[in-house]
Amino acid sequence: MDLENTKAQMRKGILEYCILSVLSRSSCYASDIIRELKEARVIVVEGTLYPLLTRQKNSGLLSYRWEESQQGPPRKYYELTPAGKEYLADLDRAWDELVESVNLIRSR
Amino acid sequence: MDKTININLGGILFSIDEEAYHILRDYLQAIDLRFRHTPGGNETIEDIESRIAEIFQSQKGLAGVINRRNVEDMIAIIGKPEDFGQVSEEETKYVYTGAQRKKLYRNTDDRIIGGVCGGFGAYLDTDPVWFRILFAVLALMFGIGFFIYLALWITLPSAVTESQKKEMYFSNQRRLSAIESNNNQQYPYSSRAGNAINEVFRAIGKVLFICLRIFLIIIGVSLVAGGFLALLAFFMVFIFKYPGAFSTNIEGVHLSYLPDFLNYIISPAIVPWTKVLITLTITLPLLAIIYGGIKMIFWFRARDGFVLLGGFILWLLCAAALSIILFNEGISYVETARSTSRDYFKNVPDTLYIVSGTKLSDIKYDNEISVPDEDYEIFISDEKKELYLRTFIDIEPAEENSVSLEINKYSAGRNRNDAIHKAEKLIYNYRISGDSLVIDEFCRIPPERKWSFDEVRLKVFVPEGTIIIMDRVTESLYHSRDEDDFISDPRNRLWFMTGEGLDRIEHRWRTEK
After folding, report:
1. Cβ–Cβ gap B40/A45 under 8 Å
2. Global confidence as pTM
3. Which of B31, B54, B97 sits opposite A31 (nearest CB)?
Protein backbone atom coordinates (compact mmCIF):
# COMPACT_ATOMS: atom_id res chain seq x y z
CA MET A 1 0.00 0.00 0.00
CA ASP A 2 1.17 3.49 -0.84
CA LEU A 3 0.79 5.78 2.17
CA GLU A 4 0.83 9.00 0.17
CA ASN A 5 -1.79 7.67 -2.17
CA THR A 6 -4.04 6.63 0.72
CA LYS A 7 -3.66 10.04 2.33
CA ALA A 8 -4.47 11.72 -0.97
CA GLN A 9 -7.57 9.54 -1.32
CA MET A 10 -8.71 10.45 2.19
CA ARG A 11 -8.14 14.13 1.57
CA LYS A 12 -9.90 14.03 -1.74
CA GLY A 13 -12.97 12.54 -0.12
CA ILE A 14 -13.31 15.33 2.37
CA LEU A 15 -12.19 18.09 0.02
CA GLU A 16 -15.60 18.51 -1.59
CA TYR A 17 -17.17 18.65 1.83
CA CYS A 18 -14.68 21.35 2.90
CA ILE A 19 -15.37 23.48 -0.14
CA LEU A 20 -19.09 23.42 0.54
CA SER A 21 -18.46 24.22 4.22
CA VAL A 22 -16.35 27.24 3.35
CA LEU A 23 -19.01 28.47 0.97
CA SER A 24 -21.81 27.89 3.51
CA ARG A 25 -20.57 30.88 5.49
CA SER A 26 -20.46 33.37 2.63
CA SER A 27 -20.00 33.52 -1.11
CA CYS A 28 -16.35 33.36 -2.01
CA TYR A 29 -13.90 34.12 -4.72
CA ALA A 30 -11.84 31.05 -5.73
CA SER A 31 -8.69 32.43 -4.14
CA ASP A 32 -10.49 32.91 -0.81
CA ILE A 33 -11.51 29.27 -0.82
CA ILE A 34 -7.95 28.29 -1.65
CA ARG A 35 -6.57 30.35 1.20
CA GLU A 36 -8.85 28.76 3.76
CA LEU A 37 -8.22 25.25 2.50
CA LYS A 38 -4.48 25.86 2.52
CA GLU A 39 -4.57 27.22 6.04
CA ALA A 40 -6.47 24.12 7.11
CA ARG A 41 -3.89 22.06 5.20
CA VAL A 42 -6.57 20.25 3.25
CA ILE A 43 -4.98 20.92 -0.10
CA VAL A 44 -1.36 21.13 -1.13
CA VAL A 45 -1.61 22.43 -4.66
CA GLU A 46 -4.30 24.80 -5.88
CA GLY A 47 -4.91 22.97 -9.13
CA THR A 48 -6.86 20.35 -7.23
CA LEU A 49 -9.62 22.79 -6.45
CA TYR A 50 -10.63 24.01 -9.88
CA PRO A 51 -11.91 20.77 -11.39
CA LEU A 52 -13.88 20.16 -8.20
CA LEU A 53 -15.49 23.59 -8.32
CA THR A 54 -16.46 23.01 -11.94
CA ARG A 55 -17.91 19.64 -11.08
CA GLN A 56 -19.91 20.91 -8.14
CA LYS A 57 -21.20 23.77 -10.20
CA ASN A 58 -22.22 21.49 -13.03
CA SER A 59 -24.06 19.22 -10.65
CA GLY A 60 -26.02 22.18 -9.33
CA LEU A 61 -24.51 22.45 -5.84
CA LEU A 62 -22.83 25.75 -6.60
CA SER A 63 -23.52 28.72 -8.75
CA TYR A 64 -21.40 31.72 -9.43
CA ARG A 65 -21.76 35.30 -10.47
CA TRP A 66 -19.24 37.60 -12.14
CA GLU A 67 -18.07 40.51 -10.09
CA GLU A 68 -15.94 43.40 -11.28
CA SER A 69 -12.56 43.60 -9.66
CA GLN A 70 -10.35 46.62 -9.20
CA GLN A 71 -7.25 44.91 -10.45
CA GLY A 72 -7.83 42.87 -13.56
CA PRO A 73 -10.72 41.10 -15.21
CA PRO A 74 -14.00 40.20 -13.47
CA ARG A 75 -13.88 37.39 -10.91
CA LYS A 76 -16.13 34.48 -10.29
CA TYR A 77 -17.86 34.49 -6.90
CA TYR A 78 -19.15 31.09 -5.91
CA GLU A 79 -22.12 30.49 -3.66
CA LEU A 80 -24.18 27.54 -2.52
CA THR A 81 -27.44 26.82 -4.30
CA PRO A 82 -30.43 25.58 -2.21
CA ALA A 83 -29.59 22.12 -3.50
CA GLY A 84 -26.02 22.67 -2.32
CA LYS A 85 -27.19 23.67 1.14
CA GLU A 86 -29.28 20.52 1.43
CA TYR A 87 -26.40 18.46 0.16
CA LEU A 88 -24.11 20.07 2.73
CA ALA A 89 -26.53 19.38 5.56
CA ASP A 90 -26.54 15.72 4.52
CA LEU A 91 -22.75 15.72 4.43
CA ASP A 92 -22.60 17.36 7.87
CA ARG A 93 -24.66 14.53 9.31
CA ALA A 94 -22.64 11.95 7.43
CA TRP A 95 -19.39 13.49 8.72
CA ASP A 96 -20.56 13.46 12.32
CA GLU A 97 -21.53 9.81 11.98
CA LEU A 98 -18.20 9.04 10.39
CA VAL A 99 -16.20 10.77 13.13
CA GLU A 100 -18.27 8.98 15.71
CA SER A 101 -17.66 5.65 14.05
CA VAL A 102 -13.92 6.23 13.70
CA ASN A 103 -13.62 7.44 17.29
CA LEU A 104 -15.59 4.49 18.49
CA ILE A 105 -13.30 2.11 16.71
CA ARG A 106 -10.09 3.90 17.68
CA SER A 107 -10.98 4.24 21.35
CA ARG A 108 -11.66 0.55 21.83
CA MET B 1 18.51 40.82 -23.46
CA ASP B 2 16.19 37.93 -24.11
CA LYS B 3 13.29 38.27 -26.45
CA THR B 4 10.05 38.97 -24.62
CA ILE B 5 6.66 37.79 -25.72
CA ASN B 6 3.32 39.35 -24.96
CA ILE B 7 0.67 36.94 -23.84
CA ASN B 8 -2.96 37.32 -22.91
CA LEU B 9 -3.71 35.28 -19.85
CA GLY B 10 -7.19 35.35 -18.37
CA GLY B 11 -7.83 38.68 -20.02
CA ILE B 12 -4.65 40.34 -18.74
CA LEU B 13 -1.65 41.16 -20.90
CA PHE B 14 1.77 40.07 -19.68
CA SER B 15 5.27 40.31 -21.01
CA ILE B 16 7.18 37.11 -20.55
CA ASP B 17 10.68 36.16 -21.54
CA GLU B 18 11.24 33.41 -24.00
CA GLU B 19 12.52 30.76 -21.60
CA ALA B 20 9.65 31.32 -19.18
CA TYR B 21 7.24 31.33 -22.09
CA HIS B 22 8.26 27.82 -23.14
CA ILE B 23 7.88 26.47 -19.63
CA LEU B 24 4.50 28.14 -19.28
CA ARG B 25 3.35 26.87 -22.64
CA ASP B 26 4.29 23.30 -21.81
CA TYR B 27 2.55 23.62 -18.46
CA LEU B 28 -0.63 25.00 -20.00
CA GLN B 29 -0.55 22.26 -22.60
CA ALA B 30 -0.27 19.66 -19.86
CA ILE B 31 -3.24 21.18 -18.08
CA ASP B 32 -5.14 21.32 -21.35
CA LEU B 33 -4.41 17.61 -21.97
CA ARG B 34 -5.47 16.74 -18.47
CA PHE B 35 -8.86 18.48 -18.65
CA ARG B 36 -9.67 18.68 -22.33
CA HIS B 37 -11.77 15.56 -22.37
CA THR B 38 -13.45 15.99 -19.03
CA PRO B 39 -16.85 17.66 -18.93
CA GLY B 40 -16.52 21.31 -18.07
CA GLY B 41 -12.83 20.94 -18.72
CA ASN B 42 -12.69 24.21 -20.57
CA GLU B 43 -14.08 26.09 -17.66
CA THR B 44 -11.56 24.51 -15.36
CA ILE B 45 -8.76 25.44 -17.74
CA GLU B 46 -10.05 29.00 -17.85
CA ASP B 47 -10.29 29.19 -14.09
CA ILE B 48 -6.74 27.97 -13.77
CA GLU B 49 -5.58 30.47 -16.36
CA SER B 50 -7.26 33.28 -14.46
CA ARG B 51 -5.57 32.12 -11.28
CA ILE B 52 -2.17 31.99 -13.01
CA ALA B 53 -2.75 35.54 -14.20
CA GLU B 54 -3.59 36.56 -10.65
CA ILE B 55 -0.42 34.97 -9.29
CA PHE B 56 1.72 36.65 -11.93
CA GLN B 57 0.06 39.93 -11.16
CA SER B 58 0.81 39.59 -7.47
CA GLN B 59 4.43 38.72 -8.31
CA LYS B 60 5.13 41.41 -10.82
CA GLY B 61 2.31 43.85 -11.08
CA LEU B 62 1.58 44.53 -14.71
CA ALA B 63 4.89 46.10 -15.58
CA GLY B 64 7.65 43.55 -15.10
CA VAL B 65 8.69 40.81 -17.47
CA ILE B 66 7.80 37.38 -16.20
CA ASN B 67 10.83 35.14 -15.91
CA ARG B 68 11.54 31.50 -15.32
CA ARG B 69 11.45 31.83 -11.54
CA ASN B 70 8.01 33.43 -11.61
CA VAL B 71 6.66 30.57 -13.68
CA GLU B 72 8.26 27.93 -11.47
CA ASP B 73 6.91 29.59 -8.33
CA MET B 74 3.48 29.72 -9.91
CA ILE B 75 3.65 26.01 -10.82
CA ALA B 76 4.64 25.21 -7.23
CA ILE B 77 1.52 26.99 -6.00
CA ILE B 78 -0.96 25.54 -8.48
CA GLY B 79 0.69 22.17 -8.79
CA LYS B 80 1.37 19.89 -11.73
CA PRO B 81 -1.62 18.27 -13.43
CA GLU B 82 -0.56 14.87 -12.09
CA ASP B 83 -0.94 16.23 -8.54
CA PHE B 84 -4.52 17.32 -9.13
CA GLY B 85 -5.94 13.91 -8.34
CA GLN B 86 -7.57 11.21 -10.42
CA VAL B 87 -10.23 11.76 -13.00
CA SER B 88 -13.25 10.06 -11.61
CA GLU B 89 -15.57 8.22 -13.92
CA GLU B 90 -18.64 10.10 -12.86
CA GLU B 91 -17.13 13.28 -14.33
CA THR B 92 -17.97 12.11 -17.80
CA LYS B 93 -21.66 12.51 -17.03
CA TYR B 94 -21.53 16.29 -17.04
CA VAL B 95 -22.28 18.27 -20.11
CA TYR B 96 -19.93 20.60 -21.86
CA THR B 97 -20.73 24.24 -21.27
CA GLY B 98 -18.11 26.09 -23.30
CA ALA B 99 -16.56 29.49 -22.93
CA GLN B 100 -18.03 31.85 -20.39
CA ARG B 101 -17.81 35.21 -22.07
CA LYS B 102 -18.98 36.32 -25.44
CA LYS B 103 -16.66 38.82 -27.03
CA LEU B 104 -16.38 40.72 -30.27
CA TYR B 105 -13.11 40.10 -32.09
CA ARG B 106 -11.81 40.52 -35.56
CA ASN B 107 -12.02 37.11 -37.17
CA THR B 108 -8.77 36.67 -39.03
CA ASP B 109 -9.78 33.15 -40.06
CA ASP B 110 -12.68 34.52 -42.04
CA ARG B 111 -11.54 37.81 -43.39
CA ILE B 112 -11.53 39.82 -46.54
CA ILE B 113 -9.74 42.94 -45.39
CA GLY B 114 -9.30 43.01 -41.64
CA GLY B 115 -11.80 40.41 -40.46
CA VAL B 116 -14.19 42.96 -38.97
CA CYS B 117 -17.27 41.57 -40.73
CA GLY B 118 -16.13 38.02 -40.02
CA GLY B 119 -15.96 38.99 -36.36
CA PHE B 120 -19.46 40.44 -36.39
CA GLY B 121 -20.69 37.30 -38.08
CA ALA B 122 -19.11 35.10 -35.43
CA TYR B 123 -20.36 37.32 -32.63
CA LEU B 124 -23.98 37.36 -33.78
CA ASP B 125 -23.84 33.84 -35.22
CA THR B 126 -24.84 35.17 -38.64
CA ASP B 127 -23.41 34.93 -42.10
CA PRO B 128 -20.74 37.67 -42.30
CA VAL B 129 -21.89 38.39 -45.85
CA TRP B 130 -24.69 40.60 -44.49
CA PHE B 131 -22.19 42.82 -42.72
CA ARG B 132 -20.03 42.92 -45.81
CA ILE B 133 -22.95 44.12 -47.89
CA LEU B 134 -23.82 46.66 -45.18
CA PHE B 135 -20.29 48.06 -45.09
CA ALA B 136 -20.04 48.10 -48.87
CA VAL B 137 -23.30 50.07 -49.11
CA LEU B 138 -22.21 52.44 -46.34
CA ALA B 139 -18.87 52.91 -48.06
CA LEU B 140 -20.68 54.08 -51.17
CA MET B 141 -22.42 56.75 -49.07
CA PHE B 142 -19.63 59.33 -48.83
CA GLY B 143 -17.25 56.66 -47.63
CA ILE B 144 -18.92 56.43 -44.21
CA GLY B 145 -18.57 52.65 -44.19
CA PHE B 146 -14.90 52.97 -45.05
CA PHE B 147 -14.17 55.11 -42.00
CA ILE B 148 -16.29 53.02 -39.65
CA TYR B 149 -14.51 49.95 -40.94
CA LEU B 150 -11.12 51.55 -40.46
CA ALA B 151 -11.99 52.57 -36.89
CA LEU B 152 -13.18 49.05 -36.07
CA TRP B 153 -10.13 47.51 -37.70
CA ILE B 154 -7.92 49.59 -35.46
CA THR B 155 -9.87 49.15 -32.23
CA LEU B 156 -11.00 45.54 -32.34
CA PRO B 157 -8.44 42.94 -31.31
CA SER B 158 -8.08 39.90 -33.52
CA ALA B 159 -8.91 36.48 -32.13
CA VAL B 160 -5.59 34.68 -32.11
CA THR B 161 -5.56 32.21 -29.27
CA GLU B 162 -7.91 29.31 -28.93
CA SER B 163 -9.66 30.83 -25.93
CA GLN B 164 -10.22 34.07 -27.81
CA LYS B 165 -11.70 32.12 -30.67
CA LYS B 166 -13.98 30.37 -28.23
CA GLU B 167 -15.14 33.70 -26.88
CA MET B 168 -15.68 34.90 -30.40
CA TYR B 169 -17.74 31.85 -31.42
CA PHE B 170 -19.58 31.85 -28.11
CA SER B 171 -23.00 31.35 -29.68
CA ASN B 172 -21.96 28.83 -32.28
CA GLN B 173 -21.76 25.36 -30.75
CA ARG B 174 -20.83 23.71 -34.00
CA ARG B 175 -17.88 26.01 -34.53
CA LEU B 176 -16.87 25.71 -30.88
CA SER B 177 -16.64 21.97 -31.03
CA ALA B 178 -14.70 22.36 -34.26
CA ILE B 179 -12.15 24.43 -32.37
CA GLU B 180 -12.17 21.86 -29.57
CA SER B 181 -11.19 19.12 -31.94
CA ASN B 182 -8.72 21.35 -33.76
CA ASN B 183 -10.74 20.99 -36.90
CA ASN B 184 -10.85 24.43 -38.38
CA GLN B 185 -13.21 24.10 -41.25
CA GLN B 186 -13.63 27.35 -43.13
CA TYR B 187 -16.64 29.67 -43.34
CA PRO B 188 -19.09 27.72 -41.24
CA TYR B 189 -22.02 30.06 -41.71
CA SER B 190 -22.52 30.64 -45.33
CA SER B 191 -25.18 29.23 -47.53
CA ARG B 192 -24.22 28.54 -51.11
CA ALA B 193 -25.41 31.98 -52.30
CA GLY B 194 -23.70 33.63 -49.34
CA ASN B 195 -20.52 31.82 -50.25
CA ALA B 196 -20.67 33.07 -53.81
CA ILE B 197 -21.12 36.66 -52.64
CA ASN B 198 -18.36 36.17 -50.12
CA GLU B 199 -16.10 35.00 -52.92
CA VAL B 200 -16.87 38.17 -54.86
CA PHE B 201 -16.06 40.23 -51.77
CA ARG B 202 -12.92 38.20 -51.30
CA ALA B 203 -11.77 39.06 -54.81
CA ILE B 204 -12.62 42.75 -54.32
CA GLY B 205 -10.88 42.66 -50.98
CA LYS B 206 -7.73 41.26 -52.53
CA VAL B 207 -7.72 43.97 -55.18
CA LEU B 208 -8.32 46.63 -52.53
CA PHE B 209 -5.53 45.23 -50.44
CA ILE B 210 -3.10 45.25 -53.36
CA CYS B 211 -4.13 48.83 -54.18
CA LEU B 212 -3.57 49.82 -50.58
CA ARG B 213 -0.13 48.23 -50.58
CA ILE B 214 0.85 49.94 -53.82
CA PHE B 215 -0.44 53.23 -52.46
CA LEU B 216 1.54 52.76 -49.25
CA ILE B 217 4.66 51.81 -51.17
CA ILE B 218 4.40 54.94 -53.30
CA ILE B 219 3.94 57.10 -50.21
CA GLY B 220 6.75 55.23 -48.47
CA VAL B 221 9.15 55.73 -51.38
CA SER B 222 8.37 59.43 -51.55
CA LEU B 223 8.82 59.77 -47.80
CA VAL B 224 12.17 57.98 -47.89
CA ALA B 225 13.36 59.94 -50.93
CA GLY B 226 12.10 63.27 -49.60
CA GLY B 227 13.48 62.66 -46.14
CA PHE B 228 16.81 61.55 -47.52
CA LEU B 229 17.14 64.53 -49.83
CA ALA B 230 16.20 66.93 -47.05
CA LEU B 231 18.75 65.28 -44.80
CA LEU B 232 21.40 65.48 -47.48
CA ALA B 233 20.58 69.12 -48.16
CA PHE B 234 20.73 69.90 -44.48
CA PHE B 235 24.14 68.28 -44.03
CA MET B 236 25.50 69.87 -47.18
CA VAL B 237 24.37 73.29 -46.12
CA PHE B 238 24.80 73.14 -42.40
CA ILE B 239 27.75 70.87 -41.82
CA PHE B 240 29.80 70.99 -45.01
CA LYS B 241 28.71 74.52 -46.01
CA TYR B 242 28.49 73.38 -49.57
CA PRO B 243 27.33 76.42 -51.50
CA GLY B 244 26.25 74.43 -54.52
CA ALA B 245 22.92 73.12 -55.61
CA PHE B 246 21.33 73.26 -52.18
CA SER B 247 22.31 76.74 -51.15
CA THR B 248 19.55 78.25 -53.21
CA ASN B 249 18.27 81.63 -52.22
CA ILE B 250 15.24 81.50 -50.09
CA GLU B 251 13.98 85.05 -50.34
CA GLY B 252 17.47 86.34 -50.82
CA VAL B 253 18.98 84.70 -47.77
CA HIS B 254 21.82 82.37 -48.56
CA LEU B 255 21.08 79.41 -46.37
CA SER B 256 24.60 78.11 -46.53
CA TYR B 257 25.87 81.17 -44.67
CA LEU B 258 23.54 80.74 -41.74
CA PRO B 259 25.83 78.48 -39.72
CA ASP B 260 28.61 81.05 -40.03
CA PHE B 261 26.26 83.85 -39.22
CA LEU B 262 25.30 82.09 -35.98
CA ASN B 263 28.62 83.28 -34.58
CA TYR B 264 27.46 86.86 -34.95
CA ILE B 265 23.98 86.56 -33.50
CA ILE B 266 24.48 84.15 -30.62
CA SER B 267 26.87 84.39 -27.70
CA PRO B 268 29.99 82.61 -28.99
CA ALA B 269 30.20 80.29 -25.97
CA ILE B 270 26.95 78.50 -26.82
CA VAL B 271 27.31 78.43 -30.58
CA PRO B 272 28.56 74.80 -30.70
CA TRP B 273 25.65 73.68 -28.50
CA THR B 274 23.23 75.61 -30.61
CA LYS B 275 24.56 73.93 -33.71
CA VAL B 276 24.13 70.48 -32.16
CA LEU B 277 20.60 71.36 -31.07
CA ILE B 278 19.69 72.69 -34.51
CA THR B 279 21.11 69.57 -36.13
CA LEU B 280 19.12 67.26 -33.86
CA THR B 281 15.94 69.29 -34.08
CA ILE B 282 16.04 69.08 -37.86
CA THR B 283 17.46 65.61 -38.46
CA LEU B 284 15.42 63.63 -35.91
CA PRO B 285 12.08 64.25 -37.62
CA LEU B 286 13.70 63.58 -40.99
CA LEU B 287 15.05 60.25 -39.72
CA ALA B 288 11.59 59.42 -38.37
CA ILE B 289 10.07 60.21 -41.77
CA ILE B 290 12.61 57.99 -43.53
CA TYR B 291 11.98 55.19 -41.05
CA GLY B 292 8.22 55.55 -41.44
CA GLY B 293 8.66 55.37 -45.21
CA ILE B 294 10.76 52.22 -44.95
CA LYS B 295 8.12 50.64 -42.75
CA MET B 296 5.46 51.49 -45.31
CA ILE B 297 7.48 50.04 -48.15
CA PHE B 298 8.40 46.77 -46.49
CA TRP B 299 5.29 46.52 -44.33
CA PHE B 300 6.85 45.13 -41.21
CA ARG B 301 6.17 45.41 -37.54
CA ALA B 302 8.97 46.16 -35.17
CA ARG B 303 9.28 46.64 -31.46
CA ASP B 304 10.23 50.25 -31.99
CA GLY B 305 7.90 51.92 -29.51
CA PHE B 306 10.64 52.70 -27.02
CA VAL B 307 13.03 53.98 -29.65
CA LEU B 308 10.36 56.18 -31.20
CA LEU B 309 9.25 57.47 -27.82
CA GLY B 310 12.86 58.11 -26.81
CA GLY B 311 13.54 59.90 -30.07
CA PHE B 312 10.43 62.00 -29.66
CA ILE B 313 11.38 62.97 -26.12
CA LEU B 314 14.92 63.81 -27.24
CA TRP B 315 13.49 65.95 -30.04
CA LEU B 316 11.15 67.74 -27.63
CA LEU B 317 14.08 68.45 -25.30
CA CYS B 318 16.21 69.75 -28.18
CA ALA B 319 13.43 71.93 -29.53
CA ALA B 320 12.73 73.26 -26.04
CA ALA B 321 16.42 73.98 -25.37
CA LEU B 322 16.74 75.68 -28.75
CA SER B 323 13.67 77.79 -28.03
CA ILE B 324 15.10 78.83 -24.68
CA ILE B 325 18.40 79.80 -26.28
CA LEU B 326 16.72 81.73 -29.05
CA PHE B 327 14.43 83.42 -26.53
CA ASN B 328 17.36 84.40 -24.34
CA GLU B 329 19.30 85.72 -27.28
CA GLY B 330 16.19 87.42 -28.59
CA ILE B 331 15.82 89.36 -25.36
CA SER B 332 18.96 91.31 -26.24
CA TYR B 333 17.14 92.73 -29.26
CA VAL B 334 13.91 93.97 -27.75
CA GLU B 335 14.54 97.70 -27.84
CA THR B 336 15.79 99.67 -30.83
CA ALA B 337 17.37 103.09 -30.38
CA ARG B 338 19.15 105.72 -32.41
CA SER B 339 22.26 107.72 -31.81
CA THR B 340 22.48 110.89 -33.89
CA SER B 341 25.33 113.26 -34.56
CA ARG B 342 25.59 116.17 -36.98
CA ASP B 343 28.51 117.72 -38.77
CA TYR B 344 28.46 121.06 -40.65
CA PHE B 345 30.42 122.16 -43.70
CA LYS B 346 32.53 125.22 -43.04
CA ASN B 347 31.49 126.90 -46.23
CA VAL B 348 28.38 126.46 -48.33
CA PRO B 349 29.38 125.15 -51.77
CA ASP B 350 27.28 125.67 -54.89
CA THR B 351 28.17 122.21 -56.02
CA LEU B 352 28.50 119.42 -53.51
CA TYR B 353 30.51 116.35 -54.38
CA ILE B 354 29.55 113.20 -52.56
CA VAL B 355 32.22 110.62 -53.20
CA SER B 356 32.95 107.23 -51.74
CA GLY B 357 35.78 106.56 -49.32
CA THR B 358 36.32 102.91 -48.57
CA LYS B 359 34.12 100.74 -50.73
CA LEU B 360 32.85 97.24 -50.08
CA SER B 361 34.88 96.12 -53.04
CA ASP B 362 37.99 97.29 -51.18
CA ILE B 363 37.53 94.92 -48.29
CA LYS B 364 37.68 91.17 -48.16
CA TYR B 365 34.50 89.54 -47.02
CA ASP B 366 33.54 85.85 -47.18
CA ASN B 367 29.79 85.88 -47.07
CA GLU B 368 26.95 88.15 -47.83
CA ILE B 369 23.48 88.00 -46.36
CA SER B 370 20.76 90.14 -47.80
CA VAL B 371 17.37 90.70 -46.25
CA PRO B 372 14.66 90.65 -48.88
CA ASP B 373 12.69 93.82 -49.60
CA GLU B 374 14.74 95.81 -47.14
CA ASP B 375 17.91 96.29 -49.14
CA TYR B 376 19.61 95.41 -45.96
CA GLU B 377 22.89 93.68 -46.55
CA ILE B 378 25.37 92.15 -44.16
CA PHE B 379 28.89 91.26 -45.19
CA ILE B 380 30.87 88.84 -43.09
CA SER B 381 34.60 88.60 -42.82
CA ASP B 382 35.36 85.34 -41.08
CA GLU B 383 39.04 86.12 -41.02
CA LYS B 384 38.66 89.36 -39.09
CA LYS B 385 35.46 88.19 -37.39
CA GLU B 386 33.83 91.41 -38.46
CA LEU B 387 30.50 92.37 -39.93
CA TYR B 388 29.96 95.18 -42.42
CA LEU B 389 26.64 96.78 -43.19
CA ARG B 390 25.76 98.78 -46.25
CA THR B 391 24.73 102.33 -45.38
CA PHE B 392 22.00 104.49 -46.84
CA ILE B 393 22.03 108.13 -47.72
CA ASP B 394 19.22 110.64 -47.96
CA ILE B 395 19.55 114.12 -49.30
CA GLU B 396 17.06 116.74 -48.10
CA PRO B 397 16.63 120.52 -48.35
CA ALA B 398 18.25 122.40 -45.50
CA GLU B 399 16.18 124.81 -43.44
CA GLU B 400 18.96 127.37 -43.21
CA ASN B 401 21.76 128.24 -45.59
CA SER B 402 24.22 125.56 -44.60
CA VAL B 403 25.35 122.12 -45.66
CA SER B 404 25.40 119.46 -43.00
CA LEU B 405 25.63 115.73 -42.55
CA GLU B 406 23.49 113.93 -40.03
CA ILE B 407 24.64 110.43 -39.02
CA ASN B 408 21.94 108.21 -37.57
CA LYS B 409 23.14 104.97 -36.03
CA TYR B 410 20.56 102.39 -35.05
CA SER B 411 21.01 99.30 -32.87
CA ALA B 412 18.82 96.96 -30.90
CA GLY B 413 19.55 96.20 -27.27
CA ARG B 414 18.09 94.60 -24.20
CA ASN B 415 16.94 98.09 -23.12
CA ARG B 416 17.12 101.62 -24.45
CA ASN B 417 20.44 102.49 -22.86
CA ASP B 418 22.02 99.29 -24.07
CA ALA B 419 20.74 99.97 -27.57
CA ILE B 420 22.06 103.54 -27.59
CA HIS B 421 25.37 102.35 -26.22
CA LYS B 422 25.66 99.77 -28.98
CA ALA B 423 24.66 102.30 -31.65
CA GLU B 424 27.32 104.74 -30.52
CA LYS B 425 29.93 102.03 -30.84
CA LEU B 426 29.16 101.38 -34.52
CA ILE B 427 32.19 102.39 -36.54
CA TYR B 428 31.50 104.68 -39.45
CA ASN B 429 34.07 106.75 -41.34
CA TYR B 430 33.43 109.92 -43.30
CA ARG B 431 35.31 113.09 -44.06
CA ILE B 432 34.37 116.61 -45.05
CA SER B 433 37.01 118.28 -47.16
CA GLY B 434 36.22 121.53 -48.92
CA ASP B 435 33.33 120.99 -51.30
CA SER B 436 33.43 117.25 -50.93
CA LEU B 437 31.82 114.78 -48.61
CA VAL B 438 33.75 111.54 -48.53
CA ILE B 439 31.70 108.66 -47.14
CA ASP B 440 32.34 104.97 -46.70
CA GLU B 441 29.99 102.57 -48.40
CA PHE B 442 29.54 100.60 -45.21
CA CYS B 443 29.69 100.77 -41.44
CA ARG B 444 31.44 98.27 -39.22
CA ILE B 445 30.28 96.45 -36.15
CA PRO B 446 33.13 96.43 -33.64
CA PRO B 447 34.85 93.02 -33.42
CA GLU B 448 33.53 90.53 -30.85
CA ARG B 449 30.17 92.25 -30.79
CA LYS B 450 27.01 90.46 -31.83
CA TRP B 451 24.97 91.76 -34.71
CA SER B 452 21.90 93.54 -33.37
CA PHE B 453 19.86 94.93 -36.22
CA ASP B 454 22.44 97.67 -36.69
CA GLU B 455 22.06 100.24 -39.36
CA VAL B 456 23.65 103.55 -40.34
CA ARG B 457 21.64 106.11 -42.28
CA LEU B 458 23.10 109.35 -43.48
CA LYS B 459 21.15 112.50 -44.13
CA VAL B 460 22.73 115.31 -46.10
CA PHE B 461 21.02 118.70 -45.79
CA VAL B 462 21.73 121.16 -48.59
CA PRO B 463 20.16 124.53 -49.35
CA GLU B 464 17.81 124.87 -52.30
CA GLY B 465 19.63 125.40 -55.55
CA THR B 466 22.67 123.33 -54.70
CA ILE B 467 23.93 121.03 -57.42
CA ILE B 468 25.00 117.60 -56.21
CA ILE B 469 27.33 115.28 -57.97
CA MET B 470 27.68 111.71 -56.74
CA ASP B 471 29.89 108.91 -57.90
CA ARG B 472 28.56 105.51 -58.85
CA VAL B 473 28.87 104.02 -55.39
CA THR B 474 27.36 106.88 -53.44
CA GLU B 475 24.55 107.19 -55.92
CA SER B 476 23.78 103.51 -55.36
CA LEU B 477 23.53 104.22 -51.65
CA TYR B 478 21.06 107.00 -52.37
CA HIS B 479 19.21 104.95 -54.93
CA SER B 480 19.18 101.60 -53.41
CA ARG B 481 15.51 101.90 -52.48
CA ASP B 482 14.28 102.36 -56.02
CA GLU B 483 16.60 100.51 -58.31
CA ASP B 484 14.41 101.25 -61.31
CA ASP B 485 15.59 104.81 -61.30
CA PHE B 486 19.20 103.85 -61.47
CA ILE B 487 20.88 105.16 -64.58
CA SER B 488 24.34 103.96 -65.31
CA ASP B 489 25.24 106.81 -67.63
CA PRO B 490 27.93 108.68 -65.68
CA ARG B 491 26.92 111.97 -67.23
CA ASN B 492 23.58 111.72 -65.51
CA ARG B 493 24.88 111.61 -61.93
CA LEU B 494 23.99 115.21 -61.53
CA TRP B 495 21.33 116.34 -59.10
CA PHE B 496 19.66 119.58 -58.16
CA MET B 497 18.05 120.51 -54.85
CA THR B 498 14.57 121.91 -55.36
CA GLY B 499 12.15 123.08 -52.69
CA GLU B 500 10.52 119.64 -52.64
CA GLY B 501 13.64 117.54 -52.68
CA LEU B 502 16.38 116.27 -54.88
CA ASP B 503 15.75 116.13 -58.59
CA ARG B 504 17.83 114.63 -61.32
CA ILE B 505 19.23 117.07 -63.84
CA GLU B 506 18.55 115.57 -67.21
CA HIS B 507 21.58 115.37 -69.41
CA ARG B 508 19.69 117.11 -72.20
CA TRP B 509 18.55 119.94 -70.01
CA ARG B 510 22.07 120.50 -68.85
CA THR B 511 23.52 120.70 -72.35
CA GLU B 512 20.74 123.04 -73.43
CA LYS B 513 21.60 125.31 -70.59
Report:
1. no
2. 0.46
3. B54
